[in-house]
Amino acid sequence: MNNLLIQLSEYLSYPFVRYAFAAGILVSLCSSLLGVILVLKRYSFIGDGLSHVAFGAMAVAAVLSVTDEMLVVMPVTVICAVFLLKRGQNAGVKGDAALAMISVGAMAIGYLLLNMFSSSANISGDVCSTLFGSTSILTLKSSDVAVCAVMSAVVIAVFVFLYNKIFAVTFDETFAKAIGVNTEFYNLLIALITAVIIVLAMNLVGALLTSALIVFPALSSMRVFNSFKKVMICSGVISVIAAFAGISLSILISAPVGATVVVINMVIFAGFSIFKRFA
Amino acid sequence: MAQILCSNVTVGYEDGAVAKNINFQLDAGDYLCILGNNGSGKTTLMRTILGLIKPLSGQISFDTAGAAGQIGYLPQQTPVQKDFPASAEEIVISGFLSKCGKASFYKRHHKEEALDNMRRLGIENLAHKSYKTLSGGQQQRVLLARALCAAKTMLLLDEPTAGLDSDSTAEMYNYIETLNKEGMTIIMISHDMDAALKYASHILDFGRDGISFMTKEEYMKGHRNE
C-alpha cells in the first residue's frame, strides 16, 4: 500500500499527470451535476446519443482536414442538443425515438466517412480511441486544462446561482411557467450545458462511456438521499472521488482511464444500493 | 369591478379552437367549479387564464396588475414527479420563485411563510420527508401549499382530487373550502358533480350545446327541470 502511494506521488510530480487529474475531476464533477437533471427529466440516454453525434462530427472534421476539430464538433453537438431537449411533447417523433435515430445515424455517417476518405493508416485505432477514450488524457497541454477549468467554472456557477430555478423547471415545468419563470430560457441553457459537457467528457472517457459519467453519480445518490439539494451535493462528491480513484488506479495498473473511472462509479453504485437495502 | 372577467374567449392551440364563446366573471371570494367531459377544453381554459397560452380571440382581464404573481396553480401530477427526490419543503418553497427576483435565492421570510402554508394544510410535520414517499393525498397537499405560496388572491385547481381515495378526497375539499372562506377565489376543474354542488358558488358548464356560466342555484334548477 505504501509502495503504491509513493509510486502515485512520483507520477504526480509530472505536470501531464497533474493535468490529467485536474481535467478528469472537473469534467466528472460537471457531468454529475448535470446528470441529476437529465436523469430526472428522463434523458439518461442523451449523453450516449450526443456523444455519437460528436463522433460523427469529428469524423467529418477529420475528412475535411479541419485543424481545430472543436470548431465543427461543438456547434453540431449544440444544435442537436437543443433540437432534442427543446422539442415539445407533441412532436412527430417521440423523444427517445428521435434520440435513437440521431445517435445511430451520426455513428453510421462518421464510420462511413472515416473508412472511405480518411488518410490515416490506422482507422480502427482512431475509431477505437474516439469511442472508448484514448490515452489522450495523458497528453493534455496546459491550455486544454485551462479550457476545462473555465468551462467547469461556468457550469458550476450556473448551478449555484440558478439552483432554485433549475429545480423548479425540472420538477414542474408547467407550474414554473405559470408563476412567470422563463422556462424556455432554462431549457435552452440546460441543452447548451449538456452539449458542452458531453464534448468535454468525450475527450476524457470516449463516446461510449460518456453516459456513464452522467448517470452513475446521480443514480447512486438518488438511492440514498431524499432531498434535491443532498442528491446534487452527493452526486458531485461521488464523481470527484470516482474520478480521482479511477485515474490513480488506471495509472498504477496501466488500465484505460475512462473504463476504470466508470468501473469505480459502478462499484459505488452497487455499494449504495446494498447500503440502502440494509439501512 | 370583477376580479376576473372572461368575455367571448375562444381557447385552443395553433391547430384549432378547443372551446368557443366562454363568458364568465368572478368576484373576490367566489368558488367556481368547471364541469365537462374530457377533451372539452377545461384544462386549456385554465392554461389560458394562467397566461401559458394566448386566447385565440376574446379577452381575459383581471382587476389587479395581471395573472403573474397573483394566481396559485395546482396542475395535474406528471409521471416525472412520482419518484422525484425532493423534500416537501423544497417543493413548497419553489412557489415563491417568482418573488425572489433574478438572484433566485429565497429569503428567510419565504421559508417562514412556506412553513406557515404547510401548517395551514396540516403537513408541517412532512417538511423534511421525501415527496416520493408521501401518500397521494399528502402529495396533493404539498402541491397545494406550493400554490398558496404563489397565490395572493386566486387559486386554480386542476382536478385536485384525481386518484385520491374517498377520505383524502373529503379532506382535500375541506381544506379548499377553508381557504375559500378565508377569502381566496377558487377556480376548480372537477368531474365530481356532488362536490361541485356542495362547495361551489358558481358553475361553468362545458356542455354539448355550448358553455354556460351560472350560479349554483340556477344550475340546480336547470337540472331539476330536465
Task: Label the structural class of chain B.
Answer: alpha/beta
Beta-strand proportion of chain B? 25-35%
The figure for the number of domains of chain A is 1
Shape of chain A: globular
Q: What's the β-strand tally of chain B? A: 9
Average of per-residue pLDDT values of chain B: 86
Tell me which protein chains meet in the greatest interface and how many residues each side has. Answer: A-B, 27 and 34 residues
The helical percent of chain B reads 25-40%
How far apart are the first and last residues' alpha carbons of chain A, in Å? 31 Å
Overall pLDDT of chain A: 84
Number of DSSP strands of chain A?
0
CATH architecture group name of chain A: Orthogonal Bundle
* Neighbour order of strands in the largest sheet of chain B: 5-6-7-3-8-9
State the CATH class of the largest domain in chain B: Alpha Beta
Global outline of chain B = globular
**Rg over CA atoms of chain B:** 18 Å
Structural class of chain A: mainly alpha
Write a concise keyword list for the protein shown above.
A: 279 residues; mainly alpha; ABC transporter involved in vitamin B12 uptake, BtuC; B: 226 residues; 2 domains; six-stranded mixed beta sheet; three-stranded antiparallel beta sheet; globular
Topology:
The complex is a heterodimer of chains A (279) and B (226).
Chain A: H1 2-12, H2 15-40, H3 46-63, H4 70-86, H5 95-117, H6 123-132, H7 142-161, H8 163-171, H9 173-178, H10 183-205, H11 210-224, H12 228-252, H13 257-278
Helix pairs in contact in A: 2-7, 2-10, 2-11, 2-12, 3-4, 3-5, 3-10, 3-11, 4-10, 7-10, 11-12, 11-13, 12-13
Chain B: E1 4-13, E2 16-26, E3 31-36, H1 42-49, E4 57-62, E5 71-74, H2 79-82, H3 88-93, H4 108-120, H5 136-150, E6 154-158, H6 166-181, E7 185-189, H7 193-199, E8 202-207, E9 210-215, H8 216-225
Parallel strand pairs in B: 3-7, 3-8, 5-6, 6-7
Antiparallel strand pairs in B: 1-2, 1-4, 8-9
Helix pairs in contact in B: 4-5, 5-6
